[in-house]
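Why do we bother with a discrete structure alphabet at all? Because it lets us treat a fold like text: something you can write down, compare, and reason about line by line. To make this less abstract, here is a complete entry for Biotin carboxylase 1, chloroplastic. Read it the way you would read a sentence in a foreign language you are learning: slowly, and without expecting to understand everything at once.
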Amino acid sequence: MGDAAVAAAASIGYIGVGTVEFLLDERGSFYFMEMNTRIQVEHPVTEMISSTDLIEEQIRVALGERLTYKQVKHKFLLSGRITAYLPSGGPFVRMDSHIYPDYVVPPSYDSLLGKVGH
């Protein structure tokens, strides 16, 4: 999928930061879904697991500079059982999620497990 995402961006001459999303079926075949030419709302998760400031990288690219890292493929799968869950709350806090204690995150999940807003 990584090669396909890079090829898709290269085929249109895209220079910037963004995401390419695919759907994966049970046979392991994947299909293009969409390309987002912006930082996704889930970007803090990517920043945490990659130790990369994506906003800083986006600004560098906009200034014509090169990325400070090379694109290396990592097999990142977040799956397993959620043993405890205490959603954010309070006045003017909104938590949208489908997870609950004892929920099992499957290996072929949509990475947006929850979203906090206000």
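What the structure line is telling us, in plain words: The first helix runs from residue 2 to 11. The CA atoms of residues 5 and 11 lie 10 Å apart.
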